[in-house]
Structures are given as structure tokens and as C-alpha cells.
Amino acid sequence: MSTPELSPPRPAADALTAPFWDGCREHRLVIQRCRACGHYLHLPKPVCRFCLSTDLGYEAVSGRATLYTYTVAVQPFHPYYADKVPYLLATVELAEQPRLMLFTRLTECTEDDVRVGMPVEVVFDDVTPDLTLPLFRPAS
Predict the structure, then answer these.
(1) Is 19 helix (H, G, I), strand (E, B) or coil?
(2) Where are the domains of the chain?
(3) Are 102 and 20 in contact (CB under 8 A)?
């Protein structure tokens, strides 16, 4: 008897976050942006925190970023990750706007390779046919 394949935890996409997850499935990083003042917003909100406008949309960004901080996860937070520890969790600052942060995982590097302030770039991990995660790797 075979064991069922373990599924990763899934984001609860809603009307605000669906464009982000749809973009990831298309291997595009799209971030909510206020059409009134031009600020990017992440995590998505119904109202711009800078100017209080509700005129918000989504826009593709470059995927270039700088590593702001990181930690090494040595215990899995979910059974899906039990055979994947240790792994690097990170906060990256996107190039498009100072202090525009994404919480992510670093890939294609080891802890010895990682330095705060290093340039990184987005890559997409097709975890399942309906779940693609944006990860970051050292910039080429």
C-alpha cells in the first residue's frame, strides 16, 4: 500500500491576493500598487496605507531585490517540510521601492553563501500544478 503524497500548506487566496498568486503561477511577480500615489503595497490591502486611496491594481515588478535579513529553519513548521530542513527563510527588499518587503525562502545557495545586503532575484517553484511559490536566489 502506498502512502499518499504529502501536500504543502496552501495560501488562502481571496479577491485581494488572487492576482499575486495568479502571477506566480505564470512565473511573474506582481505586486499591488496604488494608482493614486504610486506606492507598492505588500501584503495587499483594500486601501492604500500612504494616501488612503482605494484605486489599487497590480503591476509586474523586476524580481530584483536585496537580502534584508534571514534565518535558518531547523525544525519544520509543517509535515511537508520535514525532509527539507534546514532551509533559509528570508526577508527581501524589492528594488522598486525602499522598504517594500517580501517574506520568502532562499534557494540555490547555502548558509555560507548568504550575506545581508546581497543582491537576489526571484525564481518560481512549481510545488504542485496549482501552487507556485516565489523564492529568491543569489542574483546572477
Answers:
(1) helix
(2) 12-60, 62-140
(3) no
**Residue 64 pLDDT > 70, yes or no?**
yes
- The 3-state DSSP class for residue 115 equals coil
Is the link from the previous residue into 86 a cis peptide, with omega within 30 of 0? yes
Cβ–Cβ under 8 Å, residues 40 and 31: yes
By residue count, the chain amounts to: 140
Query: How many whole angstroms separate alpha carbon 91 and alpha carbon 136?
Result: 10
The fold adopted by the segment(s) 62-140 is OB fold (Dihydrolipoamide Acetyltransferase, E2P) (2.40.50)
Rounded mean pLDDT, 114-119? 98
pTM of structure: 0.92
Q: Where are the alpha helices (DSSP H) in 3-137?
A: 18-25
State the pLDDT at residue 27. 98
Residue with cell 518560481: 124
Give bridge partners of residue 67 from the DSSP assignment.
92
